[in-house]
Write a structure and sequence with these properties.
Elements lengths: L6 H15 L4 H42 L4 H42 L10 H55 L5 H15 L4 E7 L5 E9 L20 E3 L5 H9 L1 E4 L15 E9 L2 E10 L8 H5 L1 H22 L9 H18 L3 E8 L2 H8 L1 H18 L5 E6 L2 E6 L4 H16 L2 E5 L2 E4 L2 E8 L6 H17 L5 E3 L3
Helix pairs in contact: 2-3, 3-4, 4-5, 10-11, 11-12
């Protein structure tokens, strides 16, 4: 007889065999069977002992019952048999208690004490006890680790909370200290004092620079070292507040703060400032006004450990806002006395200064000279290029004048391209020399008015002195104006002295 087996049947049997061999629960089932087998054989002996004890007790009581009912010989035999079975059962139970329970406990105690090496055995009870102890120990270690982590987290939270409270107090103190500040010098001093109070081991310096100037001045200093000397190969400058410094002579952190808003270097092995060769911690905060970082709060200390300066970094926007508010107030005050196009004083403020200088000249018996200057042919520039390029010529001329006069001299713009200059404690000859120098500088300057178009400008000047030419500010300016008109009629580009 022939048996035909289809190909589909063979493939189905192979798939079933593969699926059985690839059963993912097979290893677990094998371990479960082994554990059940060990539990059965481990509990067989104690069960047998209990069965023998119970059988002996039953046989003994049955013998006592038979002893009172029938013959003595069978009863005595039953009692002897029951007593023997009872003794055997007790002995078996004693053996089980000693070998299967007490011995594993003693061995486990020796292993926990370290008096016996931890050697795994085939004893089911000892293995289960060992696993239980290991689980308890692991749970204890994990609980201790979690408790330690929670304690560290709690300490970190308390530290952060303390820092936050200290920062909030510092911000409140800074707000109270800088609330009523109206002067730039006072703002610098209070800011330096605030940073020094928060960081007592640091030396604090406030740097400030003008946008159009290359010099940087020290506005205020505070802290452990109140004198900072910045040295360059080309020049050596003093260290008193207000002294100018060139940009090349600034320390690296200050340069970074002027360019990138802030610089924080803590615990550095190498100093970033030649004036602090042992400095390890540097902090420079840039304060901006109108989008330009024009002031830097610079702090440096020689501590080996890195201090916590997060409060100072957080207070930077507040200091920048307070600095900008002071600068806006300063600009508002200067807008009332200075011309917005040229930066020179206004006519009303100039008359006040001239009046005060004439009064001082009368008291100390010295001369005061006033000079009026007007740009020649300015209307030609306005007609050819437009009023905007005319304003460019006026602003450029004002810059040239301010660069040539002394710091004690006063320059004001009256109207259009007309300027008035005040030379305190100067005779008419001294003023004429100064005006000739200014006239020559303007005559040789090339004005770039539109792309490649270059113009050359000249000025006409009239000079008058007090007391020979006038006793009041208006009369002195009128005499200087007449002299300026005389210079215009004489051919322009010259300085004319007023006639007595």
């Amino acid at each position: 007889m022939t048996i035909y087996i289809s190909k589909e049947k063979i493939l189905a049997d192979e798939a079933t065999y593969v699926n059985v061999n690839r059963d993912p629960f097979r290893p677990g089932r094998r371990l479960l069977k082994s554990a059940m087998r060990g539990l059965f054989w481990g509990s067989l002996v104690p069960f047998t002992g209990l069965l023998a004890v119970s059988t002996g007790i039953m046989v003994y009581f049955a013998g006592l019952w038979l002893l009172g009912v029938r013959g003595r010989e069978p009863a005595l035999l039953a009692c002897l048999a029951g007593g023997t079975v009872l003794l055997l059962g007790v002995a078996v139970q004693w053996y089980v208690m000693t070998t299967r329970i007490r011995r594993p406990l003693l061995l486990l105690d020796l292993e926990l004490r370290g008096e016996r090496p931890w050697v795994p055995e085939k004893d089911v009870l000892l293995g289960s006890l060992r696993l239980s102890v290991e689980e308890v120990r692991a749970a204890g270690l994990q609980a201790r680790a979690e408790q330690r982590a929670e304690a560290e987290q709690h300490l970190e939270c308390r530290r952060r909370l303390g820092e936050r409270v200290a920062v909030d107090r510092f911000l409140s103190t800074a707000a109270e200290a800088l609330l009523d500040v109206g002067e730039l010098q006072e703002f610098g001093e209070r800011s330096a004092r605030l940073v020094a109070e928060w960081w007592p081991a640091a030396s604090v310096t406030i740097f400030r620079r003008e946008e159009a100037q290359s010099e940087v001045e020290i506005l205020a200093q505070a802290g452990t070292q109140k004198e900072v000397t910045i040295t360059n190969e080309a020049d050596v400058t003093s260290s008193s507040p207000g002294s100018p410094y060139t940009k090349l002579a600034l320390p690296f952190p200050v340069k970074e703060a002027f360019n990138r808003a802030s610089y924080v270097g803590l615990g550095l092995p190498v100093s970033q400032d030649k004036q602090f060769p042992h400095g390890h911690n540097f902090l420079a905060l840039g304060l901006q006004h109108r989008g330009v970082f024009s002031m830097v709060v610079y702090a440096v200390s020689e501590e080996m450990e890195a201090p916590r300066v997060s409060a100072l970094v957080r207070v930077q926007p507040f200091l920048s806002l307070a600095y900008s508010r002071v600068m806006y107030a300063r600009e508002m005050e200067e807008a009332q006395i200075r011309d917005t196009l040229t930066g020179a004083f206004t006519q009303s403020h100039f008359l006040g200064l001239l009046r005060a200088e004439i009064a001082r000249a009368n008291r100390y018996a010295h001369q005061v000279t006033c000079a009026l200057m007007d740009i020649d042919d300015l209307r030609r520039i306005n007609d050819r290029y437009g009023a905007h390029f005319g304003d460019t010529v006026i602003a450029e001329t004002a810059r040239l004048i301010l660069e040539e006069v002394r710091s004690s001299d006063v320059v004001a713009r009256i109207s259009g391209g007309t300027f008035v200059l005040l030379f305190p404690e100067s005779t008419s000859d001294m003023a004429r020399i100064a005006m000739e120098r200014i006239r020559t500088r303007i005559e040789g300057h090339m004005y770039l008015v539109q792309r490649k178009d270059v113009e050359r400008m000249t000025v006409s000047t009239g000079i008058a002195s007090h007391p020979p030419h006038g006793v009041t500010p208006l009369s002195l300016m009128d005499v200087a104006r007449v002299a300026m008109e005389t210079a215009k009629r004489a051919g322009k580009n010259r300085a004319v002295m007023a006639e007595e």
